[in-house]
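Please study the protein below:
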Amino acid sequence: MGKLASAELAECTKDMDATTWNSYQIVNNRARALCYSTQQQQFRRLAEVTVNQLMATASGQLEYLKQLQEHLHQMTSQTKDLLSNQQSLRSAQDSVLSQIHGNMMELKQEKSMIAAGNKKLAELTENIRSKLDEATRQLVKQESTQLESHQKIVDDLTHIQQKSHDALNKLDQSSESLLHNHAEMTGHYERMYENMVRINSTVSSLLATVNMMQRHLDDRITWFSTILHMADDKLSILTCGVLHVSYFLFAALAASFLQSPPATRLVLFVLVSVNATMEIQTGHSLDFASITMFLFVVSAGASQQKRLQWLLLADGCYSQGTTVVKWLLLANGCYSQVTTVVEWLLLADGCYSQVTTVVKWLLLADGCYSQPWVEWLLLADDCYSQVTTVVEWLLLADGCYSQVTTVVKWLLLANGCYSQVTTVVEWLLLADGCYSQVTTVVEWLLLADGYYSQVTSVVKWLLLADGCYSQQASGPSERPFFLGGSLPGPAGDAGAQTDEGYQSPDTTTAGPTGPTVDLPLWQPTFIDCIVHSREIIVHQ
């Protein structure tokens, strides 16, 4: 077959020219190359399939080996569990054997205890039998006593039944009395209704009379309005006049009672008159609260002026100065040069021309004005390099900086009383040995100067210290400096008490019935009343 094919191919190509032969060779080569490439691809595919099959077989073998390994691990763990179970069973068997041995010993002990218990039970049974016999005898006795008590209860119930019958009878009697009282109350109510009808008729006639009086009053008000050339509401004019007259009478009575100065009374008369005129003519005026406040301010100003005049007069300088500051400066001969206390202090040391404040004056006195105040204090004790504040400097100066951290503790520790007191006030009182006598700083100050038995307030103490307390009143029972006068006695002895600036006019007020009432001569203000109340509380 090959020979035939080759012969036919040779015969076919024998008569070819060069171009055809070349084409034939090219096509033949191309066909052979295509066949070779096809064979190579087929071989490669077959090789890949074979390799894939080998890989799949290998992976399956690996999975099988992993499964075998897992089974082996499971068998190993199960074997270990079995061994542990066997060990636990062995230990449990040993414990069971020991428990059985213990139980046998306990059974022997229980047998002996049961025997002893039986003996005790026999004894108890005998005791119970004897006690039951005794209880039976006591029950018989109790039964007899219960029969007696039952009989007593029956007798008591019979007595209670009789009492209840008596109570029912009394209840019937009280019901009858209530019905009788109800009938009487009904009669009273009917009579009251008749009286109310009469009152109603009386009120009606009274209303008619009032209406008639109102008509007459309207006629009078019309006549009064024509006189004043006014055409406003009649009732408002009448109301305004009545209210202002009433307020003036009440205020005048109060001013007389409180011994108000003449200036206050004059202001009261002028202010009420002007206010009423403005209300009638323009319809605009002050209310009574504003008028009262204005009068109170005027009265307080007059009172304070009199007190200030008394202070200045006490030192013989009222004709030269009008304020406390001027009085202080005048007392030291500096009034013509300075006008404030600070300037007076600076002038006293010859430093007024150089400094204007107390701090500068203090620094200048020690020649340290060019340095700050804190640095000057620290530098004075050669400890500026150690501390930075005045507090640390004070503590370091006494060698107690390591013990305390505040000025209060340092003050208390310096006097050896830190364990006794906890505040500066207690320390001050304890330092003078008067802590057991007083409880406030004011009392301590008064006691320290020997005035506590004489005065009870700081104002009296200040006055006594300057020798002015005996000048402001003529006797121990007269009014002190901070009150306009002492409280009047029950016998009306306040009329003989007069001071300069506190005149006592003989003011009497006659009531509508005729008798006269003497008014007290002291004139307290609101602040005076508060101070006097506090003084009374302190005395008590």
Observations:
- The chain has a mean pLDDT of 68.
- The first helix runs from residue 2 to 14.
- The chain is about 70% helix and 0% strand.
